[in-house]
Design brief:
By secondary structure, the chain is α+β, with helices and mostly antiparallel strands. The chain is built from one helix and eight strands, in the order αββββββββ. The chain is elongated and about 80 Å long.
Length: about 130
Amino acid sequence: MRVVPCIIAMIVFGATLAALPLAIRHLFPDEYDEAMAQDRRAANSRGDTVAEYDRSCGFGVFDQSIVLQLAGAEKLTTLAKFQNLHYAYPKFHWINDNNLNVELGSVRGLSSLRGKAGNIRISYTYTMADKVQ
């Protein structure tokens, strides 16, 4: 009567092999989710919009940046890329239609700081966090 457990083991093994490609596709997706954050954005009176932009996959967010979309434009302009420590940031402050301050808080990494986009001048407020050894 050892045949029955052997058959059951073969069925379970076959089902596991059949489900393996689905599990791999779920853990390592071919596509990424990219979007301007709905809760972290601000627009000036002209309609220029600045926002946090996240790119994520099955493992979580791996690319955080700040983007600017000029009024009437479809294209997004990347202002900065960062690795943030605190979820309360970034914060955006339009001083007027042509001057924007981006408050990043304490960041681990920062690159591609852009000081001007179109006729908008951008300033940044941040501190660099200690790197974890």
